[in-house]
Design brief:
Elements: E1 6-9, E2 13-18, E3 23-28, E4 39-43, E5 52-56, E6 58-61, E7 64-68
Parallel strand pairs: 1-4
Antiparallel strand pairs: 2-3, 3-7, 4-5, 6-7
Length: 71
């Protein structure tokens, strides 16, 4: 996490949603530490269609972020 991005594990994720524009929104149970523009890997999600490598995130708040995700 932090300015260099990192791994977001499914065990940290509380909720998830994908909109009509193929943007996934993840809400974590603890602060994720990401900032706008971080490149992260999403892994271990119960719904594997949310897993992604090298995605650029947009920080919404300390526990919510979005990324492009065309399932």
């Amino acid at each position: 996490a932090g300015t260099n991005g990192g791994l977001i594990s499914g065990t940290k994720t509380a909720t998830r949603a994908r909109d009509a524009f193929n943007v996934a929104t993840l809400t974590t149970g603890t602060p994720h530490g990401l900032v706008n523009g971080n490149v992260a890997t999403i892994a271990g999600m119960t719904d594997a269609s949310y897993n992604a490598a090298g995605v650029t995130v947009t920080r919404i708040d300390n526990s919510t972020f979005t990324y492009a995700n065309a399932a």
